[in-house]
Specification:
The protein has about 250 residues and is an alpha/beta fold. Helix content is about 35%, strand content about 15%. The longest helix is centred in the last third of the chain and has 19 residues, at about 180-200. It binds phosphoenolpyruvate.
Length: about 250
């Protein structure tokens, strides 16, 4: 297995004002992690990206977006923000297919794949989210659900920096998490699907766990075999909590 640098990503969702960006420096200082040990990524709302990118200069931090348009060419798409625009203001990554967009905005696997491919074309590393519903988990269909999402929403070739975030919907924003065995099993399944699709290029694709990661459960979750890091929602809004999660990763010690 090739070396995959761990990634801890914070998804601020629709939270934050410019003043809240003081958290970037606080997290970089409090976590004390060397840039070569781990990637730390902040994904604030679009209006904060340029300022976040400016403030992160000289700090071991990366800045990403939470979504991008499907198409890269400028045009009559009111309200949309393209991957080249995000890249232009300093983003290096973009989350696509978050469950709040799949469920809340009706995004399909095909749209997620097109967004991931557009992001890659613009030089952004896509973070493709997948994850089953509670019904699918309870009925034993979680594996099938995630397999279908991966088949439909991954780019046809593995772009540089491609990351998959396994985020069971029933764990996002709920304070619930799967058992460590369930996380390990799903990560093994995702890794097998990546290898089948991308061959040896799959070795550089990171697979993150996301869903109610917090300072209390981070050490256990981040030590699970096959977990290359975490996508963190609520706990990334608190600098001390986010720094504690980063510091809980085995690579930080
Ligand atoms: C998320 O928004 O991707 C997420 C995992 O949220 P939370 O950590 O709050 O469950």
């Amino acid at each position: 297995m090739g070396f995959r640098k761990p990634l801890i990503a914070g998804n601020w969702k629709m939270h934050g004002r410019r003043g809240d960006l003081t958290a970037l420096k606080a997290v970089a200082e409090a976590s004390g992690v060397a840039a070569d040990a781990m990637d730390i990524l902040f994904c604030p709302p679009h209006p904060l990206i340029a300022e976040a990118a400016r403030l992160s200069q000289g700090l071991p931090l990366l800045i990403g977006a939470q979504d991008c348009a499907e198409f890269n060419d400028d045009g009559p798409y009111t309200g949309e923000v393209s991957a080249p625009m995000l890249r232009d203001v300093g983003a290096s990554h973009v989350i696509v297919g978050h469950s709040e967009r799949r469920a809340g905005r009706g995004e399909t696997n095909t749209q997620v794949r097109v967004k991931a491919e557009s992001a890659a074309l613009a030089g952004l590393a896509p973070i493709v989210c997948v994850g089953e519903t509670l019904d699918a988990r309870m009925s034993g269909a979680a594996g099938e659900w995630v397999a279908r999402q991966l088949a439909g929403s991954l780019p046809h070739v593995a772009p540089i920096g491609l990351t998959v975030a396994y985020e069971p919907i029933w764990c996002v924003g709920t304070d619930r998490t799967p058992t460590p065995r369930e996380i390990e099993a799903m990560h093994a399944q995702v890794r097998a699907a990546l290898s089948a699709r991308f061959g040896s290029a799959a070795e550089r694709v990171r697979v993150l766990y996301g869903g109610s990661v917090n300072p209390k459960n981070a050490a256990e979750i981040l030590a699970i075999e096959g977990v290359d890091g975490a996508l963190v929602g609520r706990a990334s809004l608190n600098a001390a909590d986010f720094a504690a999660i980063i510091a809980a990763h085995p690579a930080a010690r």
